[in-house]
Q: What sequence folds into this?
């Protein structure tokens, strides 16, 4: 996982992503990747998460 922390407590999944980080442009260049599970990941037996966090290139917060 890139830039994703998670914990499961009492049946509740909590995800933490640092929005100030960047992992460069997507393959198409239309977005900038902030965080990704890089596919579906098992977080406990039989439970999976798939997450992509990105910003559109050229948006207010996009890096130059």
A:
């Amino acid at each position: 996982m890139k830039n994703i922390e998670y914990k499961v407590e009492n049946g509740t999944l909590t995800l933490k992503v640092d929005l100030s980080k960047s992992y460069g442009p997507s393959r198409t260049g239309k977005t900038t990747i902030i965080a990704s599970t890089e596919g579906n990941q098992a977080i406990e037996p039989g439970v999976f998460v798939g997450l992509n966090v990105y910003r559109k290139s050229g948006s207010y917060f996009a890096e130059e």
